[in-house]
Amino acid sequence: MTKFLHTADLHIDSPLRGLAMRDETMMRTVQRATRTALERIIDLALKEQVAFVLIAGDLFDGEWKDMHSGQWAAGQFRRLEEAGIGVYYIRGNHDAVSQIQRKIRWPDNVIELPHDEPDSIVLEDLGVAIHGQGFADQKVEIDLAARYPVRVPGMFNIGMLHTSLTGSEQHDTYAPTSLEVLKSKAYDYWALGHIHLRNAEPICVEPYVTYSGNPQGRHIREAGEKGCLIGEIEGETLKNVTFHPTDTLRWQELLVDVSDDTSLDGVLAKAGQAIQSQHTRHGGLSSAFRLTFCGATKVHEELSDLIRRAEIHQQIFAAAESVDDEVWIEKIRFDTRPESETTTRDAHELWQAIAQQFAQAQGNPQAGQQLQELVKPVLDKVTAAHINLSEEGTLDERMPEWMEAAKQLLRSRLGAQNS
């Protein structure tokens, strides 16, 4: 039985976004997260005694400032070299243009497939043929896979490709192709990169087509378990593919339904319990949570009171820290609504009238300027400790944020009057 490891999109030394640096422990964890993911991949490859490692693009993140990232990665690959494990790598859109990277002397076990044309590497002793092509430029808009060579008979054939496939909402369209093109090559396994969300199930089973996902989430849109895949081959047959987590900081979205709660203390306690439960479920791994409170609740007015919002935030931060000193809050969102239909109706009718005034102002530069002068200072005073209203962009671009802040304030005040 021959094993191989499939990974992609490591983005080594890429900054993780969405966490305020509140303490040294957090800073160390965040700054080392992508490097730790590669260390865990190397550890896993050695433990599982894989024959080779495939990296389907974006090993690094953009242009380097110095050689440190590459030298450190080369040192990690030397650990595999000592065990006789090969590394086969193609460039993606993020590491295509790095000139400094091209000066790095990789260990002899690291082979980068060319970026100007597809190539094949035949591993005679393993009965494996690897086909692939990296990115020559940051934006590759042609179908690279269409030019890949046909399968090598009598071997297990693997295609490596950094691609958006047929497209993704969260990723730019690079090296687009189709499942039909991939199937036409008659390979046995397609190791894909570029899409950071791992498939729960493969895109296709025959041939086996899959994204490994990135081994370390970098922000809340890359939430959940992150890792790599290990495939097992017997002759020309793929016997098994398993997922192995490698992330050291896990981003998690947590929905907290407070419909049944009657006090703010109860809501805060429920949030703490939810964080504890999720943290335990994920094995105590360092975690960054985004909390969203939802439901029709008697506590809506207190949660919507922007004057108290800073206090609520601090209490939730404290609840997270009491669970573990490596549990952090990325963002808190409030999507509750009042139990009273009267409050909802009054808020809706009044808001419709105010929204019409906003809409009219957007079409009239002079009226818009007057609205800015009247509304912005009020919102600033009310929300200074809780919401940072953007100073960037045009008035039209900032208006939706202002309207949302005004809507929250209106609902809060109407709720207080009706309670």
Automatic annotation (TrEMBL):
InterPro entries: Calcineurin-like_PHP (IPR004843), DNA_Repair-Maintenance_Comp (IPR050535), Metallo-depent_PP-like (IPR029052), Mre11_N (IPR041796), Pesterase_YhaO (IPR014576). Signal peptide: none annotated. Residues 3-196 form the Calcineurin-like phosphoesterase domain. Pfam families: Metallophos (PF00149). SUPFAM superfamilies: Metallo-dependent phosphatases. Keywords: Exonuclease, Hydrolase, Nuclease. One of its GO terms (molecular function) is exonuclease activity. This is DNA repair exonuclease.
